[in-house]
TrEMBL record:
Residues 7-65 form the HTH cro/C1-type domain. This is XRE family transcriptional regulator. It holds the Pfam family HTH_26. One of its GO terms (molecular function) is DNA binding. It comes from the Bacteria.
Length: 67
């Protein structure tokens, strides 16, 4: 099973935001953005910061895919 953050990227497009805007709004590190970009797992507190910054639920940011 793996994680995909396609929902997050679509949400950013809808809100006309770039990754750097997300980084600044959610106050997360560049390393976290890099992990998200590579569909690597990140800590739950990072996902919660993103959800707060984007005014959405954590489950709106990612999906799990069975491989």
């Amino acid at each position: 099973m793996r994680i995909q953050y396609n929902k997050l990227w679509k949400l950013l497009i809808d809100k006309d935001m770039k990754k750097v805007d997300l980084k600044n709004a959610a106050k997360i590190s560049s390393n976290s953005i890099a992990k998200l970009s590579k569909n690597e797992p990140v800590r739950m507190d990072v996902l919660m910061k993103i959800a707060i910054a984007l005014d959405c639920k954590v489950e709106d940011l990612f999906e799990t895919v069975i491989t």
